[in-house]
Input
Amino acid sequence: HNRMLKTSGHSTCKKNLRDVLGAIDGGVTEEQRETTMKQCKLDFEYIQSARPVKDGRIFLATDHQRIDFDHDLVENHNAVTYHTGMFRAASPHGLMVDFWLMVGSDTMVGNMASSVDYNVCQIRKHRGQRCYGFLDYPWPIWTGTY
Output
């Protein structure tokens, strides 16, 4: 899920993740901290590190904050997105399609700074699925806008 990662969002993502990691009392290894912070960069290498099947299809859930990266995933890495027609990015239908496809996907690669990803991962957790790079702990609830 390519979210909270535009230029201003990139620093928001890092700040939010540093706050979350700082709130966990000694329960985070250096390796977990490093992997978690990579969520803010979200590049193809990071996505590949999460995928058990490297040549499988990528579903791209996005709010189009990084158009060039979205285009690269679709054109060069076999990604598909459903942000067209009635499912355009500004439509609540598009968000719902993205949300439930992320819930049901084999592998979910998102970022902990996104409230959408947080909610997706809570459902996945209760279904016995994981979200790549997410730490398993009670998260603080963020409200409002970033």
